[in-house]
Amino acid sequence: MELPPRFRVRGWLEKEDFQRLLEFSKYVGREGGLSIFELSDEKARESGLGPADILRELEDIKSSIPQQDLEAVEEYLRRKGSVRVGLDRARGELVISSELMLKPYLQEYTQGLRYSHELRSYLAKPYLYADLIKHMAEKGLIVDDKVNLFSNARLSRQISFSGQLRSYQKEALDAWAKNGNRGVIVLPTGAGKTVVAIAAIATAGVKTLIVVYTKEHVKQWSDAIRKFTDASGLLGAYYGDEKTLADITITTYQTAYRYAKELSPRFAMLVFDEAHHLPADKFKAIAEYMLAPYRMGLSATAVREDNKQEEVFPLVGGVVYQKGAAELMEEGYLAPYVIRRVTVKLLPEEQKAYDELRRKYMNLAMGRTFQEVLEAAKKGEPRAVEAMRVRAQMQSIVQESASKINKVVELARQELARGSKIIIFTQYKRQAEEIAQKLGALLIHGDIDKDARIRALDTFKKLQNGVLVVTTVGDEGLDIPDANVGILVSGTGSRRQFIQRLGRLLRPMPGKTAVLYEVVASGTSEVVQSKKRREAVE
Question: What is the pTM of this model?
Answer without folding.
Answer: 0.71
